[in-house]
Amino acid sequence: MIVISSSPSAVMALDPAPMLEWLRREAVILQARGTAFGEQVYLCARGRRHPIVSAARLEELGFRWPHDVQPVSERLLASYAPAGGIPAPRAGEFDAACLGDAMRVREAIACSLDGFGLEIGAGASPFPVPPRCRVVFGDRLTYEQLRAEPYPGQRLEDLVIPDILTDFDTIGNVAEESLDFLVACHVIEHTRNPIGSIAAAWRKLKPGGRLVLVVPDKERTFDRDRPVTPLEHLVEDHRAPDRARDYAHYEEFYALAQPVPEFARARAVERKFAESYAIHYHVWTHDSFREMLDHVEREVCPWSHVWTHPAVADESRCIEFYAVLVK
């Protein structure tokens, strides 16, 4: 049964003390001013660089601003691989203080993660996983392909380098029961068979492992004019995947989400369908996504705990809702 709560065990933060102790021992704070990195300050550890959002965050992590910031060359800083920001150290549970800011919700969820995990489709906005975790990145595209076609607003310096080629449709190249956590932010809407993707994640996670999903709310994105994908359609996509059935998604997407003039639409749909271009195949509200997860928990794979939370704040500050599934 789906659990709806603002303080569930699924997002219980771990004791931050071990992380802070580890940071003081293993991490350095670096900055390469006057280069492509601008004024950005990074916490660097385990070969990865994590952007620090503010001087206050740096001090929350046990470092002093500006005393602990070491000036380095662009080449040295670039030798660290890009990674996500670092959540504020937290003890306790997800609380109401998170509800006005999407990034604070992500950080609250991240503070419940530990061990070894995979993030799929991070792009230039990796999830803010605590640095005590070991994270690898997966994508269906190579680093060169990602650099060639960046999303608008992405900084190439922040683009993560995929460690493995995989996608959320199958989560291939990943061993069964090998992950403590799996993160997919704004990815599941690009899958043809989202129920199958969630089942694949269940197989890849160890017992007790966590699947973190961040999903665009169709009412707050360019999908707002599309109808919610019915559960019956999602179930059929899982039971009998059919590439021909996907064609209707392309027609709907280019008619209602990113409209192409009618005289050119058929050709655009044909071209994008032939390319298997990663459109938003399916769209959800928080409640319709909960309905799908309820079906998954009952009929597909026995998650021990399923937590969801609707979008927070207003549309200008948050376009996404959240789910954490515990195996």
Characterization of this structure:
With 327 residues, the chain is of the alpha/beta class. It folds into 2 domains: 3-14 and 97-326, 3-Layer(aba) Sandwich (Rossmann fold), CATH 3.40.50; 17-89, TTHA1013/TTHA0281-like, CATH 3.30.2390. The protein is built from 10 helices and 13 strands. The strands form 2 sheets. Strands 1-12-13-11-10-7-8-9 form an 8-stranded mixed sheet, with helices on both faces. A 5-stranded mixed sheet has the order 5-2-3-4-6. α8 (243-257) packs across α9 (262-275). It is globular, with a radius of gyration of 20 Å. Residues 1-7 have low confidence and may be disordered.
Quick summary of this structure?
The protein is an alpha/beta fold. Residues 1-7 have low confidence and may be disordered.
What key phrases describe this protein's structure?
five-stranded mixed beta sheet; alpha/beta; Rossmann fold; 327 residues; 30% helix; 2 domains
| Global outline | globular
CATH architecture of the largest domain: 3-Layer(aba) Sandwich
The value of Rg in angstroms is 20 Å
CATH homologous superfamily caption of the largest domain: Vaccinia Virus protein VP39
Could you please say which CATH topology of the largest domain applies here? Rossmann fold
**Domain module count:** 2
Main sheet: strand order = 1-12-13-11-10-7-8-9
| Total number of beta strands | 13
**What kind of sheet is the major sheet?**
8 strands, mixed
Uncertain runs: 1-7
| Secondary structure: helix percent | 25-40%
Question: How would you classify the helix and strand content by structural class?
Answer: alpha/beta
